[in-house]
Amino acid sequence: MAGLSRRAFLKSLGASTLGLSFLGGITDSADASQKSPIDLGPYRLKFTRETTTICPYCAVGCGIIVHTQEGKVVYTEGDPDHPINEGSLCPKGLSISDLSFIVDKNNKRVPNPRRLTKVLYRAPRSDRWEEKPWDWALNKIAERVKATRDATFEIKDENGVVVNRTQAIAHLGSASIDNEENYLMHKLARALGIINIEHHARL
Ligand code: SF4
Fold first, then answer.
1. Where would I find the beta strands (DSSP E) of the chain?
2. Signal sequence: where (predicted)?
3. Per-residue pLDDT tens for 79-100?
């Protein structure tokens, strides 16, 4: 290992694995050809498309390779070429594929049926969730922010000091957005007079 960098080692390991996988594919090609690419088991990465992305969980910003087949995520791994994590991931980043698929009772990876892809809304005092369009949700949020701010805005505090604030709205997060987005969200919150601004990442 002397003189061999971590990245070079990972790459040579990948090349070896690919070679073994290729040989395995020759010996079992008849069997593998009987199955859909999505059911290839140990060969599941053979027909995948690789896309690089950034872990959304925290501001470390680790690089991840996402393998997809037919538009579905089948595997994720740390990106060895990414300068921040060099292929490693913490437990949260490692389990990121759970957002897209689960392991079923037959030990197969299948799309996670609980993943939310639509807006769900539960009206006040209702006992059920309704599906709503994104535009409806955005307009509803804007209406409620305005109504709350208008009803609670304080120009001066009890000592007569100008404060221009509302304490009825709080802003939380996010660890999933970058510096520029955080800057804009912070600016929007301050412009609205929101002073309760928090973040859920404890780094
Ligand atoms: S949550 Fe973990 S894997 Fe994701 S960016 Fe943060 S340290 Fe990296």
1. 49-54, 63-69, 72-78, 101-103, 109-111, 119-121, 130-132, 154-156, 162-172, 194-198
2. none
3. 999 999 999 999 889 888 877 7
Separation CA 32–CA 30 (nearest Å): 6
Gap from CA of 74 to ligand 1 centroid (Å): 20
Provide the number of structural domains found in the chain. Answer: 2
Whether 159 maps to a domain, the answer reads yes
42 Cβ inside 6 Å of ligand 1: no
Percent of the chain whose pLDDT exceeds 70? 75
Report the C-alpha gap between 121 and 118 in whole angstroms. 10
Q: Which residues contact 46 (CB under 8 A, 6 or more apart)?
A: 21, 25, 32, 37, 40
182 domain-assigned: yes
Is 41 within a domain? no
Q: Which domain holds residue 163?
A: 153-198
Distance 59 CA to ligand 1 centre (A): 7
Both structure tokens of 30: 């008849």
Ligand 1 atom closest to 61 (CA): 5
pTM here is: 0.56
pLDDT over 70 (residue 197): yes
Query: Which whole number is the average pLDDT over 128-135?
Result: 96
- Whichever domain contains 82, its CATH number is 2.20.25.90
Side-chain-side CA neighbours of residue 89 (13 Å): 23
